[in-house]
Every structure is written in structure tokens, then in C-alpha cells.
Amino acid sequence: MAHPNYPPVAQTFYPPTAAPPPPPPPQAIYPPLPPYYYPTTKVEGVNEHSSGTYYAQPAAPAGYPAAYQPPPAAYPPAYPPPPPSRQQQSTCTVPAERPSQAIIPNPIPVVGLQYCLPRPVDLMIVRKLMTLTDDFSVTDVENNMMFKVKGKLMSLHDKRVLLNAAGNPVLTLSNKILSAHKRWQVFRGASTHPSDLIFSARTSSMIQLKTKLNVYLANRTTEDVCDFKVQGSWAERSCTVFVGESTTVAARVSETSTNTYNFELICSN
């Protein structure tokens, strides 16, 4: 009640303030976000040697505490550098495994265990133009030297020498002239002595429409059964290496486009 000696005082009533919104639920109960999404626009023609598709990072939905960070593997690799001038470069990538043929898992170090890896390796072949030699280089995708091949055209003895990145001879390939079948012998290092023979390869028949080679390791006394078989076609620029007479694949080489090859090397046991 108002005091009898004082006039009544007007009172103003204020509505109660709205309660603050509840905090967002823990991150664990949010539905999972996609790791990345593929935009419909494909970026091409960045330069004459590369093209690709960028992956965009989606914004977090409303109410999410922070934007989602996709893993680094979701982003495309950097574009490779252009090839050297006045040289013919062949880019080698690894194809997907073909389920129709068996693949051997364990390594057989025919040349050396240091050349057997648990994974495929992308390689590039760089060959100089307008030269009297048959030299070429093998590099990785970052242009790091892996091997060199030295050879001479129009020579009396057809021979090639495979060098490592340091310039040391790894293998010597020699064409055996006096042979019923065309035969190549592969020796260790720069030697051509019979004691350094690693394996030999010869055509399976005198007349062939497609290349078929039988490979025999040096410790084999007879050539009744081959250790590896190579089947391929020069026209198709492809070949497959099988273990013995089986369908188990040891290696593949195929051309996907001009000067572009897929190398799948599988050391096996």
C-alpha cells in the first residue's frame, strides 16, 4: 500500500530477459562430415604438361564449433616441372592392380635386394634426340637421377651398360651373335665373363608375330623350363613378365599415350 502522506509512485514492469542459448553438444555427437568433396569444375591447361582437379574445403554446417580440416592427402600434388628442352621425356606411372592375374608378394633379388621395394615407383625415361648413341636416363618424378644406360648404335658388338646414379656399372647387356635364337646375356657390373652371368633371355621361336622371350637364370643347367617368360608387342608398346610357365605376373609395361608408359615392377618369390 502507498503511504498516506505520499502520492502513489508509478511502477514500470520489465519482462524477464531471455535465457541464454544452451551450449553446443559435444563434438562426438555431430554427424561425420565428408573428408572432402569433388567440385564439378576441372581445372585444365595450367601448362602444356599438366592438368588436374582441385579439391575445395567445404564450410562447416551451422552450429558446428569450427570448420572441418580435411587430411593433407585430400589435396592434389604439385604440378611436375616441365621436361628438359630438346629431349624426349617419357613419364612412367603405376597402373592399378589387375585382379585377373595373380601377383607374387615376396621379393626375389635377381640383381640385388637393394633394387626390390615393397611398393611401385614412378619413373621417367629421358632420351636425347639427334645423337649417334643409344643413351638414355631414368629419373623419378622429381627429376632425381636413378639410372643411366650407355650404348652405341651401329657397333660391331651390340652392348648396353646400366649405371646407377653414382655412375657405377650395375649390369652389362650383351647380344650373343652366334646363336640359333636371338639371345641377350646380362652380366653383373661391367664384366662379360661367364662367371658374372646373371641371366640370359632368348626368343621362344625363330619366327614371331609378337615378342615372346624365355628368361633363364645363370644357375640353371638346362633350358627345358624357363624361370621367367616375357610376352609383349612392339606395336602396342607393352609387355608382361610372368614367373615360369604360370600366369603369375612379375612386371608390366604399357603405353597409355604418346611417350607415356605405365611401369609396374613386382619383385616376387
TrEMBL record:
Superkingdom: Eukaryota
One Pfam family matching this protein: LOR
Compositionally biased spans, kind Pro residues: 17-27, 73-85
InterPro entries associated with the record: LOR, LOR_sf, Tubby-like_C
Segments of this protein annotated with the region Disordered: 1-27, 73-94
UniProt record similarity statement: Belongs to the LOR family.
Protein name (record): OLC1v1033568C1
